[in-house]
Amino acid sequence: MYCHECGQKLPEGAVYCPECGTKVVLTESPEESTKWEDHLPSEHPQEKIRQASFSVGELGDDFIKYVNHYVQSSTGFSSVSELLRSKVPVTFYWQCFLIPTLVIWGVTWLAVWINSGEFMRGFLAATLIAILLGPIIGFFAAYVMGWNERRKVSNRYSNVFFDSIDIDHLARFLSESLPLVSPIFQQWGKMTQVGYSVSGVISAQVANSLERAANEVTIGTELSPKNKFFAELAIGPDLLDRASGRLRYTPWLEHRIVGVFSIKKYTLLVQIAPILQAAMEYYLEWVRQQNSAQK
Question: Is 0.90 surpassed by the pTM of this model?
């Protein structure tokens, strides 16, 4: 068994790591440690950042400790790697398909049976219509519900700040720091939407125009190994309180083809959102220290 903070091999029965002093996190089995039911995130995980009292220094072990400590305190998983291996429950997706199908089947069967008085005829008709219409309605329900659940996760790991930041410098920081905690993160840069069809071009232009109108900037990175998804951070004025002058960062995840349906968009966002928030808070603390040193 090894320490999840410094990697030191631990003696049997150890409660604290003899190298770094970190309390040992015990898990009974890999299966149990990767279930989200046992690691429910806090409703306000940014409060846990205050518990991550590591000093902000040179990138390396300090950053890794900060992010792992935050992941541990906000999700219950012992490290970033364990969080990324976790199995995120997606029961609501299957409910979106199952419930409409059962409702359609039940209503159709009852209607046909009452009108015709034939039980088997109603059963067969209801089954056929449910098979045809259930998946279609379920798809749209799952699409809307999936977007809503992703928005909840995004809002949960969003936070406000007052510090003025250089977006290009932030992108360089994320490009250098996040690969230290996981190789799925790659080079970060500013993002804009593009379209490859008439409707796609119109949709992209509308989205980009809205972003400019809100004075918002989005930076992102492809997630390896397949590079099908983009991890994103939207940074702009706090729309909930424009008068305060506060800024807000919001994590998001999107498929390479914007708008495509994918359950993975939800599960990946649940896994990477705590990591992105920890990285942002670490960076903002560094900015505050730099600003204080210059005064």
Answer: no
